[in-house]
């Protein structure tokens, strides 16, 4: 039995609240159980210098945790004067995940900046951030279409992410903190609605794991993402 009482293939309750920021072109407060991430998407006409004049846009992301997102207060990284390696890795992952489903030429010479702020962490902050970021991005590009800045949305597919792991010998979907901190193996899957794999991060924490176990984790991730895709569509259409 999982500590939460969930079935092995059961997601935590997922919520996607949109338009939570009146200024951003797209915004979403996503919840994976007790994990909460506020995501905003901001459109700017400026581009990084290395992209100027190339006839395409850019999507990038920043990620951070609020000081009391965890059990004890953490120091703001701005106060420390530098980002941790973990923060840099996660925000690069979010950016890669979103660019995988965007036609950058159709976006034109502008960029969308995604800000992901973890309000409360209980495992799976990066997967929640990616899933919520797609919603905010889609809303921002739909805004550009509605304002006749773009003829059509450059978002060509959905992307979502979910964690899976081996906990007490069983393959389970969407680990919370208690499971993640005691997992024998854990993984993060970033998948597209059309069946593409954007990224897989898989680690044996306490032991190596077999190919058959990996296949079980992958199957769980596919079923979990299918539900996340449905919830994403429901959120942007509301």
TrEMBL record:
Domain Exoribonuclease phosphorolytic span(s) in chain numbering: 10-140, 157-223
UniProt cross-references to InterPro entries, sorted A to Z: ExoRNase_PH_dom1, ExoRNase_PH_dom2, ExoRNase_PH_dom2_sf, PNPase/RNase_PH_dom_sf, Ribosomal_Su5_D2-typ_SF, RNase_PH, RNase_PH_bac-type, RNase_PH_CS
A Pfam short name: RNase_PH
Gene3D superfamilies tied to this protein: GHMP Kinase, N-terminal domain
Highest rank taxon of the organism: Bacteria
Key words of the record: Nucleotidyltransferase, RNA-binding, rRNA processing, Transferase, tRNA processing, tRNA-binding
tRNA-binding is among the record's keywords: yes
Catalysed reaction equations from the record: tRNA(n+1) + phosphate = tRNA(n) + a ribonucleoside 5'-diphosphate
Enzyme Commission number(s) of this protein: 2.7.7.56
Residue sites binding phosphate per the record: 86, 124-126
Assembly description: Homohexameric ring arranged as a trimer of dimers.
HAMAP family, per database record: RNase_PH
Function description: Phosphorolytic 3'-5' exoribonuclease that plays an important role in tRNA 3'-end maturation. Removes nucleotide residues following the 3'-CCA terminus of tRNAs; can also add nucleotides to the ends of RNA molecules by using nucleoside diphosphates as substrates, but this may not be physiologically important. Probably plays a role in initiation of 16S rRNA degradation (leading to ribosome degradation) during starvation.
NCBIfam families, sorted: RNasePH
Similarity remark: Belongs to the RNase PH family.
Protein name: Ribonuclease PH
Provenance organism: Peiella sedimenti
Source taxonomy: Bacteria, Pseudomonadati, Pseudomonadota, Alphaproteobacteria, Caulobacterales
Gene from which this protein is expressed: rph
């Amino acid at each position: 039995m999982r500590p939460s009482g969930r079935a092995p293939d059961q997601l935590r309750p997922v919520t996607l609240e949109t338009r939570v920021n009146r200024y951003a072109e797209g915004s979403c407060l996503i919840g994976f159980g007790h994990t909460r991430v506020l995501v905003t998407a901001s459109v700017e006409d400026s581009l990084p210098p290395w992209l100027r004049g190339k006839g395409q846009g850019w999507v990038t992301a920043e990620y951070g945790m609020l000081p009391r997102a965890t059990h004890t207060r953490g120091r703001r990284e701005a106060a420390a004067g530098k980002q941790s390696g973990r923060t840099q890795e996660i925000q690069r992952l979010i950016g890669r995940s979103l660019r995988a489903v965007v036609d950058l030429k159709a976006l034109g010479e502008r960029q969308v900046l995604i800000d992901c702020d973890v309000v409360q962490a209980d495992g799976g902050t990066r997967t929640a951030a990616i899933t919520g970021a797609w919603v905010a991005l889609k809303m921002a590009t739909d805004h550009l279409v509605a304002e006749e800045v773009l003829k059509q949305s450059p978002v060509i597919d959905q992307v979502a992410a979910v964690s899976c792991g081996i906990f007490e010998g069983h393959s389970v979907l969407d680990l919370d903190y208690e499971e993640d901190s005691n997992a024998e193996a854990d993984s993060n899957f970033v998948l597209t609605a059309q069946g593409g794999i954007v990224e897989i991060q898989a680690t044996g924490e306490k032991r190596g794991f077999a190919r058959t176990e990996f296949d079980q984790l992958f199957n769980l991730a596919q079923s979990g993402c299918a539900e996340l895709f449905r919830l994403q569509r429901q959120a942007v259409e509301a």
